[in-house]
Amino acid sequence: MRQAEIYRKDVLAGMLTEDGGEYRFGYEKSYLDRADASPISLTLPLQEAVFVSPVLFPFFDGLIPEGWLLDVALRNSDISILDRMSLLLLCCKECIGSVSVVPVNNGGDE
User: Fold this and answer.
1) How many domains does the chain have?
2) From first to last of its 110 residues, what are the pLDDT tens digits of the chain?
3) Assuming Cys at both sites, which of 3, 14, 44, 91 could form a disulfide with 27, CB separation 3.0 to 4.6 Å?
């Protein structure tokens, strides 16, 4: 299982989890309770229910760099271009825009 905290404008908005080939994203209750809460994406509207997908949500996949920057990341790691969650965790802590992805250390993959 791999997890990441998802921040919007430096405020913890939710958790992204990959486990057993399934992806889950859920907003934190404290974020939903904020008067200024905004969805991180139009495809992931504010709601208490957890979003579930068999593939990495397109919004998060879109945060992964492309072109020469992706080539640099691939050259300097042993990550496959097909391992989108690993690329997201490696490259998107300080990406352009209001959303950042911070890996949660679970003591390694299970």
Assistant:
1) 1
2) 999 999 999 999 999 999 988 999 999 999 999 999 999 999 999 999 999 999 999 999 999 888 887 788 878 888 888 888 989 888 888 877 889 999 998 655 44
3) 14
